Amino acid sequence: MAKVGMVSLGCPKNLVDSEVMLGLLAERGHELTSRAEDADILIVNTCSFIEPAKRESIDAILEMAKHKTSGRAKRLIVAGCLVERYRQEILEQIPEVDFVIGTNELERVVEACAPGLSGREAKGASAPYLYHEFTPRALSTPRFAAYIKIAEGCDHPCSFCVIPQMRGHFRSRRFESVVKEAEHLVRRGAREITLVGQDTTSYGQDLGLHDGLPLLLRELAKIPELVWLRFLYCYPNRLTPALIEAVAETPRVAKYFDIPLQHASGPILKAMRRGSNGAQFLRMLGCIRAAIPDATLRTSMIVGFPGETDDDFRALMDFVEAAEFDHLGVFLYSNEETCASHEFRCQVETRVARRRQRELMALQRKISRRKLSEKVGKVLPLLVEGRSQQTELLFEGRLESQAPGIDGQVYINEVRGEEPLPGEFRWVTITQAGDYDLVARLEAECFGEARIPASSNCHQLVQIQGSAAKQDDAVPYL
Question: Which domains does the chain have, with CATH numbers?
């Protein structure tokens, strides 16, 4: 069978799609590799949410095409969101592409890798797709930290967003399907599970489940040996008292809320078709903090939205200063041609939007450094991810307050006791704080009773690009 390599771009939801496609191929006997130069077949799973993501996807396709024209690769497949928006253009303008697969066509990857077949025809729309517990997945993350997609699509009418056009209407996986997959992942060594979906807070409503996400969190937290359970992302008007109570009352659920608010000015939020305002958001954050005083709060904001005035931006700055988020990402408005906001008047000049982005991030940097400085001297549980790849320090890992691939990290400069293994939970003493990262001493004692199977480390199967949306360039997913 052919050897297959993949580049996965975009968010964790897209990464799950990549893992499903790799799982389907592995089940058919294909060998998987992360080295493009060793692959007979190359797949690029694309993102096209905003203009920078489109450019990154096109660059990755063209880079992989070089391996077809001057290397070993015999076939190039393009999958994902870019295909949903520009299927015909990809086929017409990039002749090296042999097959295209939309977000609802993941199972066609088996056909795409079969010898002698071509997918250069422009296929029509496919029925909505949603994987289940029996769908094979080849994990590209270390097995101690896995994602589960609990829903697909979105029904919210945000004027700036193309995701409903690419992913379709909102649909939840069956409750039992999610539980069974989580149990399977834990048996394989997962100790942290992150639930993802376009809007996890709407989970189950299409299935007739009332408070579906709180019910799911409580049920998954019963799985033995699971240490941390978190979810991304909260749509603000779906963040209910029942959800806050479930997080507060369930020890294994991370006290972490990612709530992409997008703005704080009432007129801008109305133009975004989201509603609410900064005062209402502050009351919501106050409810979370009253129930969970140590809750970690993350959000993302758009600057430069059409019609954003200096007063609107000042309202946003004042809100961020008052809200004191632990993590905040800012990105420039992207004027996508198929969005309702594309036709709005009073487009903000790019130079103005960039200046506002810098100002907002400068404010958040001060807030972040101060809040991290408050952790110095504290002893906290840490998930060890392995030897540090970014610094000269020994190891790196994450606190409960740091989601994988999104927030900052903890770097270890001193180890007490045995050298840690990836996937271990150990206590650390925080010794230094930066703008977004921490430095700590690793203590000898382990946190909790969970142990990772010796075989839990897995090979890197995917070249993951563009998925670590951190702080100043974070992509909001709602």
Answer: 3-122 (3.40.50.12160), 145-374 (3.80.30.20), 379-446 (2.40.50.140)
